[in-house]
Write a structure and sequence with these properties.
It contains five helices and three strands; from the N terminus they run H-E-H-E-H-E-H-H. By secondary structure, the protein is α/β, with parallel strands linked by helices.
């Protein structure tokens, strides 16, 4: 069975950042609750949401219970994610080189370049 590209990236990621700009009638983001539940015990997530965002008690409760880093600004959440990603990198295996995909030109944060120089997203499209 083939694993989905997003599952591959999330499994290999050094940090998963959740930014939840929840507005119930425009962007409810309830699927985020499922993704949060899937990764909340991984030790590699950070979560951010705006103060006063509706329907966030569940996530707020578990971030506190599991000691998950949180922020109430997007900038703060990004800073936490970068810090966690740097802390979770194994210096013995990290070369600092992140090759770009030959097809789309992007350099994915998690290096998933196949033997032909294509990222997983481009390989899946072929």
């Amino acid at each position: 069975m083939k694993r989905s590209t997003s599952k591959v990236y999330l499994t290999d990621a050094k940090c998963i950042m959740f930014w939840i700009p929840r507005e119930l009638y425009v962007l409810p983001g309830f699927t985020t609750n499922i993704e949060f539940g899937r990764w909340c015990t991984s030790g590699k997530i950070v979560v951010g949401w705006l103060p006063g965002s509706p329907k966030m008690r569940y996530i707020d409760y578990y971030t506190k219970k599991l000691d998950i880093p949180t922020s109430d600004t997007l900038n703060g959440t990004i800073k936490l994610a970068v810090k966690m990603a740097r802390e979770n990198v194994d210096p013995k295996t990290w070369t600092g080189y992140n090759p770009a995909c030959k097809t789309c030109g992007l350099a994915p944060l998690a290096v998933h370049i196949d033997e032909y120089g294509n990222c997983l997203d481009c390989r899946e499209r072929k």
